[in-house]
Amino acid sequence: MSQLNIFVGTMYGGALDVAEQVKPLFEDAGYCVEIIEQPTLEMLTADTSALTLFCVSTTGNGDFPGNFVPFARELQEQSPALAALRYGIIALGDSSYDETFCGAGRALDARLEDLGATRLGERLEVDAMETFMADDAAVPWVEEWIESQQLKVA
Ligand SMILES: Cc1cc2nc3c(=O)[nH]c(=O)nc-3n(C[C@H](O)[C@H](O)[C@H](O)COP(=O)(O)O)c2cc1C
């Protein structure tokens, strides 16, 4: 069965909630889905055929959430070749933070691109100033993502 892993970076649970809400959409599309709350580089590189969705919020001043910091550090320090990686990304943030809006998601996206990974479709940026519950934006986006990227395997 095709595998889809959701890597979560969250401080207050919003990004985890998004992961849990979109999980059934991928299951309906034929995937075995795992939500990963303590991501490591090894989990990313272990199965290169897996599709990866990142759900990552921003904290501090454009920083990664604490649970995501070790993974981000590994990506930075080890510079793995990620040419086989196909991923999507949902960044949670708040536009009142201006310059650091969705800073963590944007930095992650840029780093993955540097390492040769392929993003499928555009990055979704969920603005807490506009969308109270991030899954209200994420669920329709994932439905469209599955459709437009022809990700159905069932
Ligand atoms: C202390 C703090 C710092 C934050 N810093 C930023 C930031 O620099 N940029 C941004 O876009 N959002 C920032 N946010 C907003 C969060 O990213 C946003 O509320 C997000 O939905 C939280 O998701 P989570 O529940 O998964 O942690 C910050 C929120 C808090 C409480």
Automatic annotation (TrEMBL):
PROSITE patterns: FLAVODOXIN_LIKE. GO terms for cellular component: cytosol. The keyword Flavoprotein applies. The keyword Flavoprotein applies. Transmembrane segments: none annotated. Residues 4-146 form the Flavodoxin-like domain. GO terms for molecular function: flavin adenine dinucleotide binding; FMN binding; oxidoreductase activity. This is Flavodoxin.
